[in-house]
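Many introductory courses stop at the sequence. We go one step further.
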Amino acid sequence: MLKITLEVEGMRCGMCETHVNDVVRRVDGVKKVKSSHAKGRTEVVAEDGTNIGLIKEAIAKQGYGVGKVETEPYEKRGLFSRKG
């Protein structure tokens, strides 16, 4: 799994967050998405190999700007997960 953090410009309210979340959720491989207009970013949890370009394109088609994109491995942290 992969955690993708995208800078998103133009989100001004909770409805903007909802619009971004809805279009990103439709991209193949996306498992979870959370946006914050206050922080100006969207965090996505997706399967390895998910096309990040499609995520950026989906957001841009809604009229929002996409800036820097960071990726890192995602490790699910549950109630019973252990390290090491």
